Predict the 3D structure of the following.
Amino acid sequence: MIPYKTIILSISSMFLMNCNAQKKTNKIKADTDKNQMKPVTNSDQTILYFNEGENRFLKEYQMNVTFKGISEDSRCPKDVNCIWAGVAVAQVEVMGTATRPMTLEIATIDNKARNYSASAVFSGYTISLADVQPYPGAVDGAKALKGKYRIGIIITKGGQDSTMK
């Protein structure tokens, strides 16, 4: 019979090999994410950046937009290996010139099973979350970032002509 210590040792070594593979994958992913964080401006899309608590009237869209804050930030911290990349959920209050204010919860990912949506429809426009900064660190985590968040949103014409998400 094989002693149980040998079985535990072989399972442990498999976990360690998996951790090293994840480190390499996460480093490549982080490098590509940095390149995607640059503001995009072309004829179709412009990323509009808001600091936490910032309120702006966007004349082009005839709506007032306020970045209320981040209600959830479970993104995997920098320099940590995680099984799931996590998600950040921004609370964005929007109000048209002829509509009541509405708070949209827009996530960094689309996952209907967990009730996350990366975009929402308001008054004939689709509002998508394009960027959430800064990224949580391993030591302090997301709690230390309260009040320091900055998001980038993209507003495009289209979607239902409704004030509902």
In short: The beta strands are 47-51, 55-58, 63-73, 88-96, 102-107, 119-122, 125-133, 150-157. The CA atoms of residues 46 and 99 lie 24 Å apart.
